Amino acid sequence: MHFAPRLSASAIGSMPHADVKEAVDFVLTHFKEIPCWPQLPKKSYYENMYVQFSQAMPNVVVDKEQKRIFINTEKNLEEKLEVFYSKYLEGDLGYFSIGEDFASGLYEFKRRFLTSGIKDTRYIKGQIVGPISFGLTVCDQIRQSVYYNEQILDVIIKMLSLKAKWQIRFLKELKKEIVIFLDEPYLTSVGSAYVAINRDKLISNLNEIIDVIHAEGAISGIHCCGNTDWSIVASTKTDIISFDAYNYADTVLLYPDSISKFMERQGVLAWGIVPTDSNALKENKDSLSKNIEGWVNKLKEKGIKRDTIINQSMITPSCGTGSLDEELSEHILLLTTSLSDFIRTRYL
């Protein structure tokens, strides 16, 4: 599917609000073209990005009081795996659904959108945690990352694939095109001395989920809010690369051939140019637009046409705002939409 956002604004997902209606109202009021449903980690531990998508995981233990999630790989695991694979092979999407207690923003977003009469929306953005970050962050009962357990990793990938499929169908009832981001903060550790992951295996892990997203007619994105090997991300089948352009745009330029090939196949860059910390208070649409223009010119020097860059770019915050206070979060999100409007008047 050809996706040309032409500098439209969207958000990464997480917000600090405890009131789900206030969060959804803010998103629908200010993000007209590509709104996303809000993840609310301060509202409930169940909305922590790893817990939020853990339902249906065999032997997952979620300790809400201690704020801990882990997978018990010993207790009756074979029996639980048999049930899991049976549900997977049946394509039982209800089994892989995301409950409202775990994603209140998703359900409220859908209810509000159906009654809002919004006409300008082109796409709706959803998100799930990526398999690399889930596998490296969530541990077993002896605190070892489950990514290195091949059996559990296969379950994680299949579980997230069907959660993405369920979410797409849930949102398609809104009669809009759907975008699903895989949130992969742990890609920043790939290649370090502490995280040894084969390049081809990593790409294959991501592509297995992306293939499911594409099979449902949806658009896929990968979000990483730090420095990583962008040639790996560009080598996946993703349609969108979402990155922290405020702090790490220069690292993307280290891979001009990979980014050029990505954009040649109509890939989109989601420029996380609005910082998600106190730096947002010293920036404005003028300063950030100059920042963007500088990076666009550097991409042009790498041989990528200006029109291609403009047509195949989005404007976003550098990351989610779920850990911030509400006032700063809203300032950042409003700066994102105003920046998008401002640079579109200059470029389009």
| Morphology | globular
Radius of gyration: 19 Å
Question: How are strands sequenced across the largest beta sheet?
Answer: 1-10-9-8-7-6-4
Number of helices: 12
| Coarse structural class | alpha/beta
Overview of the structural elements:
It is a single chain. The protein has 348 residues and is α/β, with parallel strands linked by helices. The chain has a single domain (8-347), classed as TIM Barrel (Alpha-Beta Barrel), CATH 3.20.20. Helices cover 44% and strands 14% of the residues. It is built from 12 helices and 10 strands. It has a 7-stranded parallel beta sheet. Strands 2-3-5 form a 3-stranded mixed beta sheet. β7 (219-224), α7 (230-235) and β8 (240-243) form a beta-alpha-beta unit. The chain is globular, with a radius of gyration of 19 Å.
Features:
single chain; seven-stranded parallel β-sheet; TIM Barrel; three-stranded mixed β-sheet; alpha/beta; 12 helices; 348 residues
Secondary structure layout:
Layout: E1 8-9, H1 20-30, E2 60-63, E3 68-71, H2 77-90, H3 104-116, E4 123-129, H4 131-137, E5 139-140, H5 150-172, E6 177-183, H6 199-215, E7 219-224, H7 230-235, E8 240-243, H8 245-252, H9 256-264, E9 268-274, H10 285-301, H11 306-311, E10 313-317, H12 326-347
Parallel strand pairs: 1-10, 3-5, 4-6, 6-7, 7-8, 8-9, 9-10
Antiparallel strand pairs: 2-3
Helix pairs in contact: 1-3, 2-5, 5-6, 10-12
Summarize the structure.
The chain is an alpha/beta fold and 348 residues long.
